[in-house]
Amino acid sequence: MADHGPVDGGIPADDDIPAESGTPAERGTPGGGTPPGGETPVLRITGLNKSFGAVHVLHDVDFTLRPGQVTALVGDNGAGKSTLIKCIAGIHPIDSGTIEFEGRQVSISGPRDAAALGIEVVYQDLALADNLDIVQNMFLGRERTKGVVLDEDSMEQAARETLARLSVRTVKSVRQQVASLSGGQRQTVAIAKAALWESKVVILDEPTAALGVAQTRQVLDLVRRLADTGHSVVLISHNMNDVFEVADRITALYLGRVAADVARAEVTHGQVVELITAGRSGELGLAPVTAAENL
Ligand SMILES: Nc1ncnc2c1ncn2[C@@H]1O[C@H](COP(=O)(O)OP(=O)(O)OP(=O)(O)O)[C@@H](O)[C@H]1O
Ligand SMILES: [Mg+2]
Q1: Ligand 1 centroid from CA 79, angstroms
Q2: Which of 82, 206, 255 to mutate for ligand 1's pocket (most ligand atoms within 8 Å of CB)?
Q3: Mutation to probe ligand 1, out of 55, 74, 88, 94 (largest number of atoms < 8 A from CB)
Q4: How far is the CA of 203 from the centre of ligand 1 (A)?
Q5: Highest mean predicted confidence (pLDDT) among 6-10, 191-195, 285-289
Q6: Whose CA is nearest to atom 3 of ligand 1?
Q7: Rounded CA gap, 274 and 283, in Å?
Q8: 224: CA distance to ligand 2 center in Å?
Q9: pLDDT at residue number 271
Q10: pLDDT tens for residues 188-245?
Q11: For residues 74 and 66, what is the distance between their CA atoms, to the nearest angstrom?
């Protein structure tokens, strides 16, 4: 397993800098402020820049995730949402910036580093194997063994326990082939798989995009339960109803810059739509000159 990398090799955070700086107000200050409850952020990204060749995609991005919270990552097509999560997941190396995990500075130089920290990503295509059952999918590539054989009982039990912990009731048998599941059930299995690995950060890229009303409801309930069981969840979504239903915080990207990082309760649908489309809304968002220079 990934016994190298950030968990063991991470550089300890500067002891002089308390994890919670006690900044009085966090409104509109990306990455800043003391969260409700005062927990150390699980993940704190500061000043991240990423270019592909000559194309500067992410500009000085600050992004903070806290335990037990759902953070919606919103932005127009091409704003940089997927690029940001791929940097967090170790798929893209970053050009500059710092990543702190639970208060310690780390480097994430590959997906194994991210997984070792407890960062799991559910990509839109789900990457489930149709010809395998739910247990086999949840343990794919990380099978438990007993001697030289697979420990089916232990894996089956862990799969059941994870689904029960997340109150998933729509899946009848964990030995059902994934090919026979509905879109919502598949999404549920993919999310439960991410929750299985003592993951601390679960990133979901458009989990409800292909789902109907009832299935969306189930997935949003699951997203909430993931946060309520202590995970920090990132929800990428273009659907404002989903965002306003489950998110605790909203981070809006506009052309690769963080336009706002706000508590959901502090903004309206209309403001978030403006942040997405124009980079600012009233007092909130990028300075007019910054928003305009990208046009
Ligand atoms: N591998 C790559 N090489 C070159 N450019 C890339 C690469 N990946 C992304 N980009 C560019 O980076 C920008 C941000 O893309 P990204 O996929 O992060 O956007 P997004 O916010 O996820 O959009 P969407 O909502 O459409 O999924 C786009 O201009 C895209 O063309
Ligand atoms: Mg994307």
Answers
A1: 7
A2: 82
A3: 55
A4: 17
A5: 191-195
A6: 52
A7: 12
A8: 22
A9: 96
A10: 888 888 888 778 999 999 888 877 888 888 889 889 999 998 999 999 999 999 999 9
A11: 17
Does residue 61 contact residue 260 with C-beta atoms inside 8 Å?
no
CA dist list (Å): 219 to 142, 189, 214, 232, 248 = 25, 10, 9, 16, 16
For residue range 248-272, what is the model confidence (pLDDT) as tens digits? 999 999 999 999 999 999 999 999 9
Its pTM stands at 0.82
Residue 65 φ then ψ, to 5°: -120, 140
> Domain map of the chain by residue range?
6-118+198-293, 130-197
The strand pairing partners of 70, in sequence order, are 233
pLDDT at residue 281, rounded to an integer: 92
Reported as a pLDDT band with limits 50, 70 and 90, residue 126 is low
What's the average model confidence in pLDDT over 69-76?
97
Ligand nearest to the CA of 79: 1
Which atom of ligand 1 is found nearest the CA of 75?
21
Q: Nearest ligand, CA of residue 256?
A: 1
Residue 47 has pLDDT above 70, yes or no: yes
Q: What is the pLDDT of residue 82?
A: 93
Pairing between strand 201-205 and 119-122?
parallel
| CA 211-126-187 angle, 5° bins | 40
From 74, 83, 258, give the residue whose CB has the most ligand 1 atoms within 8 Å, as the site to mutate. Answer: 83
Could you count the other beta carbons within 10 Å of the beta carbon of residue 7? 15
**CA-nearest residue, atom 25 of ligand 1:** 77
Domain spanning 6-118+198-293 has what CATH number? 3.40.50.300
